[in-house]
Amino acid sequence: MIYQGQALTAKYLDGGIAELCFDLQGDSVNKFNRLTLNELDQATAALAAEADLKGVLVTSAKGVFIVGADITEFTELFKLPDEELGKWAREANGIFNRFEDLPVPTVVAINGVALGGGYEMCLACDFRVMSTAAVVGLPEVKLGINPGFGGTVRLPRVIGCDNAMLWTATGNQQKPDAALKDGGVDAVVAPELLKEAALDLLNKCVDGTFDYKAKRQEKLEPVKLNDIERMMAFTTGKAMVAQQAGKNMPAPITAAKSMEKNAPLARDAAIEVEIANFIKLTRTPQSNALIGLFLNDQAVNKTAKTHAKAGGDVNQAAVLGAGIMGGGIAYQSAYKGTPILMKDIAEAGLELGMKEAGKLLSKQVNRGRMGADKMAKIMGSIRPTLNYDGFDKADVIVEAVVENPKVKHAVLSETENHIREDAVLASNTSTISINYLAEPLKRPENFCGMHFFNPVHAMPLVEVIRGAKTSDETVSKVVKYALQMGKTPIVVNDCPGFYVNRVLFPYFAGFEMLVRDGVDYRRIDKVMEKFGMPMGPAYLMDVVGIDTGCHAAEVMAEGFPERMNYGFRTISQMMYEAKRFGQKNGIGFYAYSEDAKGKPRKTEDETALSMAAEAAEGRSLEITDEDIIARMMIPMCTEVVRCLDENIVSSAADADMGLIMGIGFPVFRGGALRFIDQMGVAAFVELADRFKELGGVYEAPESLRSMAANGETFFK
Questions:
Q1: Residue 403 in this model has a pLDDT that exceeds 80
Q2: Which CATH architecture has domain 316-494?
Q3: Which of 315, 357, 428, 678 could serve as a FRET partner for 149 with CA atoms 20 to 30 Å apart?
Q4: Rounded to two decimals, what is the model's pTM?
């Protein structure tokens, strides 16, 4: 044994070849934490001291290669002053450089996921052999930062500047065929042949068949482009990156600029450029938000898996009500491997549901993501029915009929008589109280809410709503089913609107008040889209359906009259009364027609503008873009805080992830509570107080005032 540590070992194989094997003890994956970095340095020194060493094979003992750096350590590292953070980065890069400079050839066998620092380790090797089961890439921009272990230096010298900018700026995982085509790996083989193929390549380096020194030298020298070629490559590349990334995400364009600046430099000087940009990006609010989002996502998934442990198996599901929503639920369940019954009272409804599932599967086939045989198998696992035959085999039954309390009561009561006593019944309601819906049920402990977001196949969030009588076993089983469907469930407690809709409607209240005060809704849309929302509030109302929105607003006003009873005739009510329901009937705040692909295309509508002017009753408020954002965001943020105070959501992580996944809250802002943290709790309270005369939705909760007084934050 050449080296034995807790994260990696080095030992001789045959003929002077040593195997450097990553195997982080006590963890299911390999990652670059402080321990692994230190041991890589020690192992490299031990290898360099071996007089008989002829080559190094780098492997992993786990199912992945190395997933990247340990993000949990980043939050503390990034609090260091620039000088100390730079010192750490130089020390880390020195380790990779010393490995790269070993006096013998190095070949890595990439058996699984090799991302971020994991792929940067691969780039430090002379040759890369990849399994067909592996993926590689540099996803650091998705955390708002640059690669930090030499990725912006080595990658352009290995695959060219154009490809390197694309790989790094998108942060996408590269599958074997794409990685081989671009030159990111040198060979791709079946998993069972990986080690043998990598050893064969290494031996060919040892015997001189391959000139590993020449290949290594390319990574140590400036990029092989003259000044004009370099200028053309980076001018075009940066323009494409800037267009795709937008103004709110500085990491992609910074990574491209880092490559441009380090391209004419030798390795060590080039790495200094990378470190400088790495430090700069760690100071951005986007990095803070995106790293926080990553950690929140891990926390939410961990909580969901903990909930699911107590849930029994879900081998058969059923959905009540076909149509677009029922068909979407059926598709998602069957696509992810859980067969499902789809019941409706009319043949036309079943046809619509099957058509929706078929349409979604056809898209997968047309894009080459599945074959026709697999599509047929999935469609076969959706069984449409007009009766309850087979419902006695269902473990979870999801009700997805019209959002009408009386209809839901009738359907749920009837269904309860046709299912097993241990089966779980769940309602896909978006606003109706779970406690109210449970009233006529004989087994309310087996009932909860399971709120999907539309379109089901695209939206990752599912709200699992616990009623007053809902058992822990019921929650566990529905969480487990949501996970089986490939969704991220968050468990919330019952209240009007539950969590996502409850906090969305105060946001709409801010919009209604702005229009009432004479602010052009087109401007509000543009400001909020610039803020990062996927669409402005007027456009969102059109997409959701103004009739649906008005019904939900009534529910919210009844549930929270002190904050959500507007007290004036809103522009949405005027639209509803005029039967302008948005995209569903082609007219709302905007007019809609189909484009060449059959998708709705919005255009401005003069009648809607006249209605907005009528709603304003002659008011014409002079207001800055910053105050528009404030008047839109304060109501949402304060309601999120109230939901946390009332235990509607159990954690700040659940709260922010619910907004990211449920309404498309800007990922680079991290969620409403992260937004408050970054502004400063005291500053946010002061901002809310500035608008408090507008009504209860602008009133800062006492808990927030207490946090401000004590200097507290939602996230550390």
A1: yes
A2: 3-Layer(aba) Sandwich (3.40)
A3: 678
A4: 0.90
